[in-house]
Amino acid sequence: MTNYLNFAVYDYSMKLIGKGKAKDIYLADNGDIIFEFTDRITAFDGAKKAEYANKGKVCCALAEYWFNILGHEGVPTHFKEKVGETGMRVVNLKILPVEVIWRNYVAGSLWRRYENKEIKLPDDTEAREGAPIPNGMLEFTTKFEAIDRPVTTQEIIDAKWMTEKELEYLRDVTGKINSIMFSHLLRKNIILADFKVEFGKKTNGKIILADEVGTPDGCRFWDRNAYIKGELHSLDKDVFRKNKGDLSAAYLEIYNRITKD
Ligand code: TMP
Ligand code: ASP
């Protein structure tokens, strides 16, 4: 990765308008949004926090990588350009109030909710962490509440957050994003266990992919060789959530494995 000036000193006219868990959000003069990917990391709804060197650079570069691939494959996204090493210019959208989660394997909160007897697993899915979910599954969680909680499509429609037609579109496009990323990663010997995406609405009402995509903050990536031997070797934020070693090293490894042929 080339060394540029950190973008925060790049354009003094930008106004800080928000701070997410890992990104700072600026408004540019022309109305665009600029993200700064920081080295911050949080988990468990902010209860666990830290900073890791290179995390911002890796997530920014991987988000750019996937936005380009998805854009070429016909998925409309908010990506405009990368700015320096940790900045990204994107379209200013009205972010939809739900996060969309796609799961190919049993992991994370799905496994936890199953163990706590809160849910059943999808049909034909073995009750084991790491088990494949035939045909995958989609879940929605809240975005603008203190704790991200799963919501049903009925609740989303009743709250008038989205229409049935919009939900159908989110289902289709998230399935398409999964197919593209899953097959691409498999060629690199990486299993895409699950991921989260967010969407926003343009002023003309069109819904497009927002936030970041395909980063180790928002996906679970497992090494396929280890999986075949029966081990879940994480190259993502689970390294932090589960204290599984050095996060900077895991993030650099996944960056190299995804982007280098
Ligand atoms: P979960 O198993 O904790 O529900 O997470 C599923 C996937 O979505 C996992 O790859 C992490 C990602 N995710 C986020 O990036 N942000 C979130 O707020 C949540 C709930 C999940
Ligand atoms: N919603 C979770 C949190 O805030 C997401 C995660 O663990 O990545 O911690």
- Low-pLDDT ranges: 1-5
Q: Give the names of the bound compounds.
A: thymidine-5'-phosphate, aspartic acid
Strand content: 25-35%
Name given to the CATH homologous superfamily of the largest domain: ATP-grasp fold, B domain
Helix count? 7
Summary of the model, kept short:
The chain has 261 residues and is of the alpha+beta class.
Overview of the structural elements:
The chain is α+β, with helices and mostly antiparallel strands and 261 residues long. The chain folds into two domains: 87 residues, Phosphorylase Kinase, domain 1 (2-Layer Sandwich), CATH 3.30.200; 166 residues, D-amino Acid Aminotransferase, Chain A, domain 1, CATH 3.30.470.20. The protein contains seven helices and 13 strands. The strands form three sheets. Strands 8, 9, 10, 11, 12 and 13 form a six-stranded antiparallel β-sheet that branches. Helix 1 packs parallel to helix 7. It is globular. The two termini are 15 Å apart. The N terminus is likely disordered. The site of aspartic acid (ASP) has 7 residues, from strand 4.
List keywords for this structure.
alpha+beta; Phosphorylase Kinase, domain 1; D-amino Acid Aminotransferase, Chain A, domain 1; 2 domains; 7 helices; 13 strands; 30% strand; disordered N terminus; binds thymidine-5'-phosphate; binds aspartic acid
